[in-house]
Amino acid sequence: YHESFRIFRKNKTAMISLAILIFLIAVALLAPWICRYDPDAQVLKDRLLFPSAAHWFGTDEFGRDILTRCIYGCRISLSVGIVSQLIATVIGYSMGVCAGYFGGRTDDVISFLIQLFSSIPFLLFAMALMCALGSGLVNLYVSLGLLTWASTARLIRGTVLQIKNQEYIQACRADGGSSLRIIMKHLLPNCIPMLIIAITLGIPNAILSEASLSYLGLGVPAPTASWGSMIAGSQTFIRTNTYYSLFPGLCIIITVMAFNMLGDGLRDALDPKMHSNGGSL
Asked: Interior CA angle at 84 toward 16 and 160, to 5°?
């Protein structure tokens, strides 16, 4: 892992992305202390103000400070991305390791489920699931977690197939080691780099999905601040108050790009094939 860390540190793009994400996380966590305004408080006399010293990003149609709502929207987006991908990772690892380790009928059934979840139109399925469960933050966590585990399962299955017949695992099995012990003690540590990459690259997709669902009115219910719902609310004023949609849109772009570039950097650093090629980026 020392070599992986060295390779990652040399990747300036990944390091800048990491710094941006640390800043966003810090801002999201400290939102109650750094924001001067209540994100949900309506001040109609201040509606649709242009950016100024009092309101750096301007105000929306209800007089709410857009900067404050962008910061609180960051909390929603990051929490949805991280929690949903943790759920997807637990499901994906469990399914992938069972498919790769046990093989046979188990592998056939799980591989079919992976193909099924990979082939369905994601956004349509997410919309249907949110309609069934109802809007809300917890339902977003569950829905996106249940719908995005397939790529992680496929990745873990391939990794387990490559290592399950190695000598140290065969020796543990011959020594009477249980399947659970082998999976948790020997297979899991070898899968951790792949899981880190999968989580990092899955978070931006979850953030975009949350923004899309909130834009359609199926995500976080009003008046909770969400980047997607803010963009949806700005449509009426797109010609006269362009800043209204510009700032939450930039928040989405910056966050998604930072996670994607960080994920690419982690993949280059943690992928053994890159090490065999001299650690080239």
From this structure: 85
**Eight-state DSSP code of residue 50:** P
DSSP single-letter state for residue 52 = -
Give the rounded distance of the alpha carbon of 42 from its chain centre: 31
Task: Extract the tokens encoding 260.
Answer: 């994607």
Helices 12-29 and 66-102, interaxial angle, to 10°?
120
8 Å CB contact between 234 and 252: no
The contacts of residue 187 (CB under 8 Å, 6+ apart) are 97, 101, 160, 163, 164, 169
Q: Cis omega (within 30 of 0) on the bond before 223?
A: yes
**Residues in CB range of 106: below 8 A, 6 or more apart:** 98, 99
The Cα 186–Cα 24 span in angstroms is 35
Q: In terms of residues, how long is the chain?
A: 281
The HSE-up count of residue 137 (CA atoms within 13 Å, CB side) is: 15
Tens-digit pLDDT string for the chain (281 aa): 577 778 778 888 989 999 999 999 999 999 999 988 999 888 888 888 899 998 899 998 898 999 999 999 999 999 999 999 999 999 999 999 999 888 889 889 999 999 988 888 888 888 888 888 887 888 899 999 988 899 899 989 988 888 887 777 778 777 777 778 888 888 888 888 888 888 988 999 999 988 888 888 888 887 888 898 899 888 888 888 888 889 999 999 999 999 999 988 888 887 655 444 444 33
Q: What are phi and psi of 65, to 5 degrees?
A: -70, 120
Integer Cα distance of 134 and 136 in angstroms: 7
Residue (of 83, 64, 79) closest to 24 by Cα position: 79
